[in-house]
Amino acid sequence: MSRIFVRGGQRLSGKVKINGAKNAVLPIIAASILASEGVSIIHEASNLDDVRTMHQVLEGLGITINYDHSTIKVDASHIQCTEASYDLVRRMRASFLIMGPLLARCGEVRIALPGGCAIGTRPIDQHLKGFEAMGVKIELGLGFIEAKVNGRLQGAKIYLDVASVGATENIMMAAALAEGTTIIENAAKEPEIVDLANFLNAMGARIRGAGTGIIRIDGVTELRGVEHTVIPDRIEAGTYMIAAAITGSTIYIEGIIADHLTPIISKLQEMGVIIDIDENGMRVSAEHPLRSVDVKTLPYPGFPTDMQSQMMALLLTTDGTSIITETVFENRFMHVEAFNRMNGQIKVDGRAAVVSGNCRLVGSKVMATDLRAGAALVLAALAAEGDTEISGIHHIERGYVDIVRKLRELGANIRRGEDVEVQEELSEIKALFATVRPSWA
Ligand SMILES: CC(=O)N[C@H]1[C@@H](OP(=O)(O)OP(=O)(O)OC[C@H]2O[C@@H](n3ccc(=O)[nH]c3=O)[C@H](O)[C@@H]2O)O[C@H](CO)[C@@H](O)[C@@H]1O
Ligand SMILES: C=C(OP(=O)(O)O)C(=O)O
Questions:
Q1: How many separate domains does the chain show?
Q2: Is the Cβ–Cβ distance between 290 and 269 less than 8 Å?
Q3: Active-site residue, 359 included
Q4: pLDDT tens across 430-439, in order?
Q5: Strand bridging mode 83-84 / 108-112
Q6: Which of 132, 139, 267, 410 has a 20 to 30 A CA-CA distance from 17?
Q7: Which residue's alpha carbon is nearest to atom 10 within ligand 2?
Q8: ipTM surpassing 0.90, yes or no?
Q9: Whether the CB of 306 sits within 6 Å of ligand 2
Q10: How far apart are CA 406 and CA 191, in angstroms?
Q11: Ligand 2 centre distance from Cα of residue 345 (Å)
Q12: CATH value at residue 93
């Protein structure tokens, strides 16, 4: 099994370039299903496991899709199948985002219930509530959903009980081809939603208000493929900002939209990190000790839950005690156990974690339990004394392009490799077989 090995204690320096946002490109690929003519050309489609999974999902629908050097081309003029297999959908929650586009284009879909990171129960009731309001009949089978609409989807007024990113995206895509107007109230405001709306509008959709709590979609009868460049990944950028802060280093982060990073920038500044923004990126510079701060995760423009575990790694090294409150997902503290194995002192009480600073992090064998938890362990390992071996790295590879190479280029002592013990055992077995001659030989 592959592992990431880190020897802590190196200062970082130099420049790192941010790739296209995973959470923007996935809905945009799903939205390309809506184009009944023309080819959608999507640039900055990061080379990530999740993007490859979405590629396979569309291929499974019989759509022509081609992925080459961060550019995806989708020709969805012919859709041969409206079913998404359990095998693909369980791997990645965002595959569920094909439901809205398929309902709008084909009037039916059969899709497995979604999987993804183990960070909470993650229901889909708000997606389904939106589709039902638009006239869709939904049947829940064992692990499957079957949905159908007679004729076109009907525009509706939909109030989301929680400002769900996925539900906002799924409903917005369905509504783009619906008859009449759809209004989504208490919509999510994340930058990835604005990027999706920009893509849809370029395709011919009529969407207003994306990025605010009320989105109005006037349905149109057809959409066409267009060319689009995905926004930079604010969570990848935030992760490298913390890499600089946790190692007391100065690095330059290139290719960002600073506005999307406001909640992360202001928290880090509160801690004493110096951030200089210019037109190409930002210089992040830190000297220890940094100040401890309290953090509460919230939907955008609040502090992102996808940065909570990375922030926890940093708070272990600051000068006092901090409280982190996770309000978005009910089970997103799985990384605490691994941090405590590295000599961290964190106590969890419901949705709050009390993080003791001034911690002498010590290298250890730890396991990534989800994508961001994995990234946070890499960060903690950069600051720890000695060697850390991180398993479960398939989680990290879902969402970070070349994290090992990028950190090594910044000066980190980090490599990706196979588990040494397993390798040693394998070579012993190979050596044993080499000495055994079968009787017939
Ligand atoms: C691919 C993608 O973009 N993933 C992001 C997206 O996930 P995702 O779109 O799954 O997250 P949501 O915004 O939907 O979830 C937010 C909260 O709403 C709840 N909920 C959601 C839908 C629903 O029908 N009912 C319901 O109760 C969830 O359980 C959760 O507690 O937004 C999350 C919150 O910023 C991020 O952590 C994920 O990285
Ligand atoms: C939780 C995440 O992804 P997903 O919604 O795909 O599980 C994430 O990007 O941190």
A1: 2
A2: no
A3: no
A4: 666 666 555 5
A5: parallel
A6: 267
A7: 306
A8: yes
A9: yes
A10: 25
A11: 26
A12: 3.65.10.10
